[in-house]
From TrEMBL:
It comes from the Bacteria. SUPFAM superfamilies: Dimeric alpha+beta barrel (SSF54909). This is YCII-related domain-containing protein. It comes from Kribbella soli. Belongs to the YciI family. Residues 25-109 form the YCII-related domain.
Length: 125
């Protein structure tokens, strides 16, 4: 089953890795942030080797977004972002896990300082 790990963050300025651009992340000493980054890279390498990591992307700043809504009889586009939250989608990873429990175990490892992680299974048709 495939799951998406959505990373939401409120970064000022916008950048990646998110830990370097959030207030709570910058409060962590640089050597600790570096160790956390190394652990995260090692986890991604393990997930890639096991076949559980399908893909992942860091997203550009919300100000670069276009929003499409249906109005009347046609779609209308506007400049973004228009999320109802100060936290914006910063990136995502797609995992292919045997069980929901495994996906939840992995999703918890994606949580970092200043981030909110959402785990959502793909919709099966």
């Amino acid at each position: 089953m495939k799951y998406v790990v959505l990373i939401h963050s409120h970064m000022q300025p916008w950048g990646h890795p998110t830990i370097d651009f959030t207030e709570v992340g910058r409060a962590i000493p640089a050597d600790e942030r570096a160790a956390m980054g190394k652990e995260f890279d090692e986890m991604l390498a393990e997930l890639s080797a096991s076949g559980e990591l399908v893909s992942g992307l860091a997203l550009d700043a919300p100000s670069t977004a276009r929003t499409y809504r249906w109005e009347g009889k046609r779609p209308v586009s506007t400049d973004g972002p228009y999320a109802e939250s100060k936290e914006q989608l910063a990136g995502f990873f797609v995992l292919d896990c045997a069980t929901r429990e495994r996906a939840e175990e992995l999703a918890a490892k994606f949580a970092g300082p200043g981030d909110v992680i959402e785990l959502r299974p793909e919709m099966e048709f």
